[in-house]
Write a structure and sequence with these properties.
By secondary structure, the chain is of the alpha/beta class. The chain contains 21 helices and ten strands. It has two domains: about 5-325, ABC transporter type 1, transmembrane domain (ABC transporter transmembrane region fold); about 335-575, Rossmann fold.
Amino acid sequence: MTTSPNRFVAGRRLLKALVSFHTGYFFVAVSGAAVFATGTVVSSFGVKLVIDDVILPAFTDSGTTFSTWLVTSLIVIIIGLVRATGVVVRRSYAGKLQWATARTISNRVLRHLMNQPLSWHRARMTGDVAARAGVDTDAAVGILAPLPFSSSVVVLLVVAGTWLVITDVWLGLFATLLFPVMLLMNVLYQRRVDRYYRTAQDELGALSEAAHESFDGVLVVKAFGAEERETERLAVISRRLRTARTQAVNLRSTFESIIDATPSLVNISIIALGSLRIRSGSMTVGDLSAFVYLFTLVSLPLRIVSYVFSELPHSLSGWERVQEVLREPMRPQPRASVQHSSRHMVELRHVSARHDSTVDVLRDVSLTLDRGSTLAVVGTTGAGKTTLLHVIAGLVPVGSGSVALGTKRVGLVFQEAFLFAESLRYNLTLGRSIPDHEIELALEVSASAGFVREMGIGLDTELGERGVSLSGGQRQRLALARALAMGSELLLLDDTTSALDPATEESVLGNLANLHDRMTTIVVASRPSTIALADHVALMDSGRILAMGRHADLLGTHEGYQSLIAAFEHDRQEGTT
């Protein structure tokens, strides 16, 4: 575990960093707290006036005059209004400070995450990434709520301590001894509880990661009857989280009980000693009442300072997990290395590429494709077809060679179509302002307009999570419509039509071909009828392009291509029996 001095340095840096996001809110909240602190000290003077000038004279023969009662009452009311104003300002702006800071940090984390390339996200679990931008951010800013008040406590303690000593030297010194005692208890508590909060925050991230993964794979879990095993896996992580939090809460409850009890015990001692000072004539009843009242009021700020100390380890744990993400260097975007081609729509020169392994998935690939043409990419599983599309789309970095495109408007449509739990319009535009007639055209070209009308789905209809009410083929067609609506000039289809029946697939590819020079298409295909519709075919194996030409030519001259097409035909026949 990190040593205590280092933790205090980290805590100071944390507070400085959090306050820097919205300094204005912080200083307004601190000003309100300072007004409240000043009113708190002055209120003890009001108690003294009420007792010595109003209450005690009422029991004597002289009594209390109306003017004295009125002036004293006005002083007490004014003090109360000042304190109330300070409380309202402090609490309002402390809340604004906390939530505005949480929003700023979350946006910064999300922006950092979204700007990282695909390779970065592949190396991390979605649940853990989500936790960094959510629960960890909330934990980090948890200390901001009590911070403005606790920052003014220094002024309060100095002024109150001075007032107490002036009222009665010996009794004041006895009362102020509580301040360093409570500070020492805070230091000891912070050293012990720190490791529990860090463990709990890590386990919370692990639980979020595991739960997200489990829900994403719910079909696999149910298909293999693994509900109980998956539940137990999550339960194990939950038990570790519960243990860490229970240890932290137990220690915190003990600490706060001591913090609550200490001022009460000291107050009893002050009353006992104060009665002796009154008997000796060293102080009045009003002095002792004001003394006890002020000490009681000061005890609350001391508890809030203690709360800051108890919240500090939790906030530090969340902040450190957030910083782990923000400290990671921004990896270069593969898309930035894609060059412009003035002669061809696609131009690859001796391209080699890999993912996170040491083995090249693409090896010395050269490819040229003119605008308006259609290329079918075929090959066995693991041949590198999908990686080729990802390299052209600028999602996977090139290890060697060069990629040049004739447009920046590239649309990649995956085999597993992803739809957001938003409206149909949002799923087709991703929030961009696209005219309705262009959206309707995209639906027509992708053969989606028919089922959209039949199902009564308007553009503003919510599709539900992942478009759960739609079939696989319908989701694929909407994903294709999205790429078209976004104005793509180069369309990359990763076996996108695999869930469509042959007639619908032929209609879609025919519609794309009718766009002529507006659309260049590269399609990864495994259906012979789809392959036959393409202008050119590229045969891939082990990351290389073995042959390229027209379907009929390759079928008559390339033995490997003949075998592959025969295997595709056999698979289709097996699938229909």
